[in-house]
Amino acid sequence: MAQARKQTKRPVSGKKNVRNYSKTKKKFVKNFTGKYKKQSKKKKQQQGVSSLILIILILIAGFVYFRFFNEKERFPIAEGDIAVHFIDVGQGDSIFIESGGETMLIDCGESSETDKVISYLEGLNVEKLDYVIATHPHSDHMGGMYKIIDEFDIGKVMIPHLDPSDTPTTRYFEEFLDSCNNKNITLSYARKGNVIHLGSSEAEIIAPCSDDYSNVNNYSVGIFLMHGTDTRRIDRRRRKSCRG
Length: 244
Hints:
Blueprint: H1 13-69, H2 71-74, E1 82-86, E2 95-99, E3 102-106, H3 111-123, E4 128-133, H4 139-142, H5 145-151, E5 153-159, H6 171-182, E6 187-189, E7 195-198, E8 201-207, E9 222-227, H7 232-240
Parallel strand pairs: 3-4, 4-5, 5-6
Antiparallel strand pairs: 1-2, 2-3, 7-8, 8-9
Helix pairs in contact: 3-5, 5-6
């Protein structure tokens, strides 16, 4: 019986190549990953520096704008006490101003809204209105002004000078005139350029610019309220606000 040949295992070159390739691949991936991480870290650092520079530039630009170009910064700083209240009356408007112990009411809205205005003023412990301005004879601006006249101690009442053909004959306007008459209040007409001294403030009449308009809205009284000592910087704009 023939002696069986002893079989020896030969190394498979393919497996060795696979192992070598695997090591090479891992080394390549490791090197590439490390290089990528370094580049990514460097890129993030560069982005962080760029963001910081951008923020600084924005802050500088904001400072320059508000210091040299913002219109509000050019207006005089207020001195003393002043308060301006914008009262919600729905359609129309109502503005109450307090300055240096004196008061002014501009419009009061519809008659149905005027009770809110009265309650608001009473909540401020207002007993006297030194100046009352009815900007123009439409109900959403002075529909309940007769109630204001009846309720408070009134100093001076101002309205625009209307062409006779534009003078309203509505009930609320007649009641307004009756209330003024009952308190012996003589109506004053708003004239462009007149200045109202309200405590430590001044209100210059800048509108209406004419006594003859085709639309009653154009008769509306406009005031330029000034509070502070240095108003020279805004004189030019005030003069340009109305040309009549």
